[in-house]
Amino acid sequence: MKNQPLRGLMLDAARLVESQEYYRRFLDFCAEWSVNAVIFRLTDDQGCALRFRSHPELVTHPNALTPEEAQALASYAAARHRTDPRNRVARPLPLHHPRARAR
Questions:
Q1: pTM, full prediction
Q2: Distances 93 to 12, 37, 41, 53, 62 between C-alpha atoms, Å
Q3: Average pLDDT of the residues in 10-35
């Protein structure tokens, strides 16, 4: 990606969780249109779309992604060369979580 212009899209799934097939179609669209950076947002201050084994109380959606499903989507994106340009994973706690207030 060093010599290419950065073209990116952000998918905000924190409040509205879609099916795995929807996310795969989104990644296919990005590959088709030469989008070379995808940011997949799974948490915000009012929702969490990822199931944490250590904190099951954080899940706010009945169809939230399991860690395995999230990893499968990351692998699917990587196979199509669609990644987060920051190359990092943020793990903030929602503001309503007791440990977040202690900071």
A1: 0.69
A2: 17, 24, 13, 14, 19
A3: 87
